[in-house]
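user: can you give me the structure for this one chain? tokens are fine.
assistant: on it. calling the predictor now.
[tool input]
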Amino acid sequence: MIEIKLDKQKLKEIQKTLAAIPKQIPGVITRSINRTLTTAKTAAIKLITSKTPVTQTRVRRHTRIYKASKNKNFGKVWVGGRAPLSYFKARWRKKKEKTPGGGKRRVAEVMYDIGEGRQTLEPAFMVKIKSGRKAVYMVGGHYMRKKPHSPPPKPLFEGPGGEVMTTAWLKYVPKVQVKAEKVFIKNIESQIQYVLSKRRA
């Protein structure tokens, strides 16, 4: 979550600067916050897509702006939520491995990348579900697909049911927060100069 809010000290500074035109103060604050939120959302999307294999289109689906208003001097950009592992280049394969007794068995595994190198879930497999999404299933013991139409076990990551996005994306939020706070100060100064120039004109 990226939050932008006006503290009391900055509010007093704005009130002092715009004392002659107090009716303009709510608009200055609201516009400054909302423009900063738009910038923060764009920055978050670019940062996440530069660090992970997820596309910008998919990241946008998981970002939302909650705007400020004249009665609410704060706003936020929500980033995160759940997503299928297919967003993270997930694929599955069967492989043979040796058993403790010296024999061999076939095991299925799912590989994916959340921007930290390839990771593996084992034993696991992927199937396409009715919604068209690919679901990842973990199974106890080895898996051999002898019955393709048999009902699979409970999905681990299905559609919006996976937790991987939360850990993969939220670690980038603090960096965007720092940048957004600096942009917010600049936006306030810009809005103040704008209303003052209109008054002089």
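assistant: here you go. Residues 95 and 107 are 5 Å apart (CA to CA). Residues 2-81+167-200 form one domain.
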